[in-house]
Write a structure and sequence with these properties.
173 residues, alpha+beta, Pnp Oxidase, Chain A, eleven-stranded antiparallel sheet, Pyridox_Oxase_N, Pyridoxamine 5'-phosphate oxidase family protein, coenzyme F420 binding, Split_barrel_FMN-bd, oxidoreductase activity, acting on the CH-CH group of donors
Length: 173
């Protein structure tokens, strides 16, 4: 997971004259507070697959879970590169965020227990997960857990000033 501050650049082509690059710490706060994220994966035939889901920001990464036979899990078996987005559907206020990275399976039970606690703290007891055999267990179902550490992230500040910030993390392309 990235441990250093990313390089932030403002894309002046898509920003107001008075805009400055947004702070990564503000983006992290927004990522942690968001309740719904949109995950984009790639199907084996190359077509995109987009789905809303819930998740948590922990240890410098966004985490999400999915059943092993769901479309997103199947897609990740052949291509772990993903984009996660969150924000608001307004034009003149708020900030939209895009996190690009690789979805890496989390199976270490101590870490999964910590993440399960974070899910319940954020979303309530309806989202209580037990942990067994390297997965979340909920009722009769099981869910694989994935972490996406940002390689590149984008922030789209809306309203005045408009601003498009790109954050690049060490070693990202």
């Amino acid at each position: 997971m990235p441990g250093t501050e990313p390089l932030a650049t403002l894309d002046e082509r898509y920003s107001s004259a008075q805009a400055t690059a947004a702070d990564w710490s503000d983006a992290v706060t927004a990522l942690a507070r968001a309740e719904v994220y949109w995950l984009t994966t790639v199907r084996p035939d190359g077509r995109p697959h987009v789905t809303p889901l819930i998740g948590v920001w922990e240890d410098g990464a966004l985490h999400f879970c999915t059943g092993a036979e769901e479309r997103k899990a199947k897609n990740l078996r052949s291509n772990p590169h993903v984009a996660l987005t969150t924000g608001c559907n307004t034009l003149r206020e708020g900030c939209d965020l895009v996190v690009e990275g690789e979805a890496v399976r989390v199976s270490e039970e101590r870490r999964l227990r910590r993440l399960a606690g974070a899910w319940e703290e954020k979303y309530g007891t309806e989202w209580h997960f037990d942990v067994a055999n390297g997965v979340f267990v909920h009722g009769a179902g099981e869910a694989l857990v994935f972490a996406v550490a940002p390689r590149t992230a984008f922030g789209f500040g809306k309203g005045e000033p408009y601003g498009q910030t790109r954050w690049r993390f060490t070693g990202s392309g």
